[in-house]
Write a sequence for this structure.
């Protein structure tokens, strides 16, 4: 999990949110058994533009587990404070309560929203600094604080399939590091270095884990005196996959 600047709502959002809240109240008075989830499902097509905007702001990744989502699902608005709990219904159309989350993280936290010494246990990536609460040891995640530990538990951030995904991404990052340092061709070294810088950026998958690992393995690259110039995110995933695959044999020799 990394900190994300959600930014202010898109133009016209406040008016739309007010109107949707009015319709929710009206529908609720007509249908006493109507749940917040059913109503949100009904109006989902009306919120496609906001979902797309939110997806851009959250770098097309799950705000919690940092898995890239565009290849498995359309952007899906989720609620930090769960809409299924009556005390949080007021936050249903609150831009600051919306985030992008994958089905697994969302399913896992569901309606749970416990309190840790007067603060929500669940870390809010748009408000908290997750690095103060969570640490990575290779692909394994550890809660450093009570809120960090509870966040891991609530979201299942240590679930084995997710840890396997992180491990497999780390293998690719490791290959890039070898190629950046020792590839025979200078051109390949330079491409691998560029891609490593992309892997450290917010838009790359599992950036918090990559930063932790590279801080240990390549501290000057991970924590440069001057920030690296930004590497374009376009096609980053494919470029990493292609370079690693094309130079697999060379990487094997370097290990
Ligand atoms: Zn997730």
């Amino acid at each position: 999990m990394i900190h994300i600047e959600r930014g202010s709502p898109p133009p016209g959002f406040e008016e739309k949110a007010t109107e949707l809240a009015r319709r929710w109240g009206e529908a609720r008075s007509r249908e006493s058994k109507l749940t917040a989830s059913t109503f949100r499902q009904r109006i989902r097509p009306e919120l496609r533009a906001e979902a797309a905007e939110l997806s851009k702001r959250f770098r097309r990744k799950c705000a919690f587990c940092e898995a890239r989502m565009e290849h498995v699902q359309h952007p899906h608005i989720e609620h930090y404070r769960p809409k299924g709990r009556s005390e949080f219904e007021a936050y249903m159309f609150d831009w600051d309560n919306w985030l992008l989350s994958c089905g697994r993280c969302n399913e896992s936290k569901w309606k749970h929203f416990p309190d840790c010494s007067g603060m929500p246990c669940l870390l809010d990536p748009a408000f908290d600094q997750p690095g103060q609460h969570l640490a990575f040891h290779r692909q394994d995640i550890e809660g450093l604080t009570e809120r960090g530990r509870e966040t891991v538990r609530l979201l299942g951030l240590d679930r084995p399939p997710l840890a396997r995904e992180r491990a497999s991404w780390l293998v690719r990052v490791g290959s890039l590091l070898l190629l950046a340092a020792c590839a025979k061709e200078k051109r390949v070294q330079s491409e691998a270095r560029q891609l490593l810088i992309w892997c450290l950026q917010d838009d790359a998958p599992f950036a918090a884990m990559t930063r932790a690992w590279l801080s240990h393995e390549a501290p000057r690259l991970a924590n440069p005196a001057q920030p690296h110039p930004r590497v374009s995110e376009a096609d980053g995933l494919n470029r990493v996959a292609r370079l690693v695959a094309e130079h697999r044999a060379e990487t094997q020799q370097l290990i």
